[in-house]
Each structure stands twice: as structure tokens, then as C-alpha cells.
Amino acid sequence: MKNEPLLKYLIFQFETALKNAPKIDPDKDIEYLHKFRVAIRRSRSLLKLFQPDAYAFNAILKEIVQKTNELRELDVFLASLDPISYPILSKKIGKYRKKHFKEIWSSEFSETTIKKLYQLLDEIKTVDLPNKKKELVDSAEKFHSTSLEIFHNLPKNTSNEALHELRIKFKISRYALEFLNSCDLSNKQKSIEECKQIQDHFGEIQDAANQLDWLEQFCNQNPCKECKQLIKERKQFLKLVKKHM
Questions:
Q1: What is d(CA 78, CA 62) in angstroms, rounded to the nearest whole number?
Q2: How far apart are the C-alpha atoms of 112 and 127, rounded to whole Å?
């Protein structure tokens, strides 16, 4: 593995996910779930870019991430909710989050996921991955340039779905550039910061839209006097972040 930087990097990501998986719990630090998901997303993004034929890896990693999407979204939502201004909703959503967390991240799912990750960790060593510096750098740079071109030609009133797709492109770009940086293949710090800014802004829009949809559904099923004001506040915020595209 001396001259296989991508393989070593992917192995590190799988090991990071495996290190954090047993610590994930509704009563523990939310960063364990976050670090677990980032490691999975990095692995999936790099495989999609550098080895798109690794269908089995992509399918398994996608399933794991999608299964935990709502848990992370609930964590982000609660972190953005002021418990002083919205004490009733904070308590109700916190209770829902804890119950839902245990349903999704069950003992069975945890054990199955860890087993799958160990299998992928073994199998990744048999995958035909690019290892030449020029090939890795060229692929990452080309994908980043394409993402920037789409961004700079983005039409007004772009749909949330299209923005989400572009956000994914910048997420892949950022992870690929971070890989180049961390393995000393190419200094991409400036481009990484640029990707992060664009990705964060799109993420803010996506989070605001998702949170508003989720909040409206939650309030329909769990009405309280704070719902109307928070929905109004979140609608105004969504308009604001989309306005500053």
C-alpha cells in the first residue's frame, strides 16, 4: 500500500466509521453520529468519483447514510431551536427524537451495519483503484471545475431539488480535494475553502427547506401554540437564504 494513497485513505475512513459506530446513542454526544456519517459519505463520494463501477460499495454505503439521514436532520433542527423561545416544541421534538433514534439506530441495525463495514474494509483491498498521482489529481480537478461552471451559470429561481444536486457535486469536490491535500498529492486548501462556502450555503437552503417541511408535518400531528410562530419564522428564513444565492 506504499504507493496507494486512495486505498489507504478509504481504509482510514472505514476505520473511522467503525470506531464511532458503537458510540452512537441518543443520550451521547451527537458528534459520534456526525463523524460516522462523514466517514461514510467521504468513502462513497471518493468511490463514485474514482471508481464508479464499485456498485456494491455505493449501494451499501448509500443505504447506511439514508437510514441515518433523519437522525442527523433532527439533531441539526434541535440545535437551531431556541428552547427559551420555544420550550414546548423543544421538549416535544426532543422526546420524539429520542424515541425515533432508538427505532432507527436499533441494536440490530447497529450490529448489521458494523458487520457490513468490516466486510467492505476487507473487500476494498481487492478493488481496482487508481493510484497514479496525475490521474487522481486530474480527476478531482476536472470534477471541481465542472461543478464551478454549473454554479456560475446557475439560473435564477433554481428548484430546491436542483440546488441539492449541485450541493452534492460540491460535497464530492470538497472530499476529493481534501483527499489530495491530506495525502500531499496537491495543495488545494484555497479550493477546499471555496467548496465549503458554496456547500454550506446550499446546505443552509436545503436544511431550511427540509426543516420547514418536517415541522409542518410534525405540527399537524402534534399541534401546540408555538407551531404557528415557528413555521412563520422558518418560512421567512428560507426566503432570506434563497435570496442571498
A1: 25
A2: 22
Selection from 78, 110, 72 nearest residue 93 by Cα: 78
Could you read off the pLDDT of 116-137 as tens digits, one per residue?
Answer: 999 999 999 999 999 999 999 9
Contacts 24+ apart (CB under 8 A), 109-114: 109/67, 110/21, 110/22, 110/24, 113/21, 113/64, 114/18, 114/21, 114/22
Cell numbers of 42, please?
467521504
Q: What is the pTM of this model?
A: 0.91
**Is the pLDDT reported for residue 20 higher than 70?**
yes
Determine contact, residues 5/136, Cβ cutoff 8 Å.
yes
Any long-range contacts for 67-72 (C-beta under 8 Å, 24+ apart)? 67/104, 67/109, 68/33, 68/36, 68/37, 68/104, 68/105, 70/100, 70/104, 71/33, 71/97, 71/100, 71/101, 71/104, 71/105, 72/33, 72/34, 72/37
- The 10 Å CB-count burial string (b at 16+, else e) for 181-193 is eeeebeebeebbe
